[in-house]
Amino acid sequence: MKVWMLVIVLAAITIAVPRAGQAADPIVIRFSHVVAEDTPKGKAAAFFKRRAEELTAGRVLVEVHPNSTLYKDRDELEALQLGAVQMLAPSLAKFGMLGLPEFEVFDLPYIFDDEVSLERVTNGPIGQQLLDSLGSRGIKGLAFWNNGFKSFSANTPILKPEDLSGKRMRIQSSRVLEEQMLALGAIPQMMAFSEVYDALRIGVVDGTENPHSNLYSQHMHEVQKHITLTEHGYLGYMVITNRKFWDGLPRAIRRQLEQALKEASEYANRIAREENERAIALVRAAGTTEIHQLDAAGRQAFRDALLPVHARMAPRIGADLIRRIYAETGFDPGGAIR
Ligand code: LMR
């Protein structure tokens, strides 16, 4: 056999052998997120893994990397776009980093009264429009996962808006959240979630805001003496994937993954409230943190201080989108925006 022929045959063998092996290799989905496993998002990601592997009979393997062990907030979005991970569920507050400020509509204080009004938006045409809006970023939006409503925490009591004046408050990377803290006279500090516990412990920041499941699972209560159950804002997620990866999946596998995700989303949205109730009960039991409940006048004072954020952020988010959400949920803007 001539040398050049031998080269071709050897090349053909080396190409053919891995191909034969690849047919049996599972498709690996790396699912990275920044919270603990014992949170609504952590549990839903584990649920998705189990159902995806069951429904595809092992043809798909889902590796869940929780707690920023693989990537932190900003890095995980870049990693998804580059194809280094295949799935994420960032909070809606973090899509502004992709140049999509309309996602920050979810951060507007008091825009949702409860999960019912939230789901009218996420399950309706506005939710679909947001899911579809990521294509030009190489991303596909798959589903919304709920977490819940946020409370303020600090080392001093927060009983009225002025109590946050001059406090350095950690926020997610959202201009709306920045404006929210400014409206209270606080000093907003954007910071990756993985850094919050240490920043609170060392005193780089004085306080923060989070649903209770995030606060408890990151041990923030151990370094925060006061929590006020304000429920002043919402925190939820969009499950996203690398568009090229998703579109390249065999159709049958994609269907099975869609089914797994549908079930995981129902599960996530069902457990969020009880997980947050469980977390605040555990904070109470830990005895490290005083938990304050506001009376009607106290709640109104926070509302009055924070509602002007809607109008201030309308040029960034789009007044039309805000109005469409008001119409969907029946929210009464009062003096907010018209
Ligand atoms: C935060 O940064 O506070 C949250 O977005 C974390 C999360 O993913 O719930």
Number of helices: 13
Taking strands numbered 1, 2, ... along the chain, how are they ordered across the largest sheet? 2-1-3-10-4
Number of strands: 11
User: What structural class is derived from the secondary structure elements?
Assistant: alpha/beta
The first-to-last residue Cα distance is 83 Å
Poorly predicted parts = 1-22
Helix content: 40-55%
Helix-strand topology string: HEHEHEHHEEEHEHEHEEHHEHHH
Bound molecules: (2S)-2-hydroxybutanedioic acid
How would a crystallographer describe the biggest sheet? 5 strands, mixed
Task: Kindly report the average pLDDT value.
Answer: 93
Report the principal-axis shape.
Answer: globular
As a percent range, the share of strand residues is: 15-25%
C-alpha Rg (nearest Å): 23 Å
Give the SSE map.
Elements: H1 3-24, E1 27-32, H2 40-55, E2 60-65, H3 73-82, E3 87-88, H4 115-122, H5 125-132, E4 139-149, E5 151-154, E6 168-171, H6 175-183, E7 187-190, H7 196-202, E8 207-210, H8 212-217, E9 226-228, E10 234-242, H9 243-247, H10 251-286, E11 290-292, H11 296-306, H12 308-317, H13 319-329
Parallel strand pairs: 1-2, 1-3, 6-7, 9-11
Antiparallel strand pairs: 3-10, 4-10, 5-8, 5-9
The chain binds (2S)-2-hydroxybutanedioic acid (LMR).
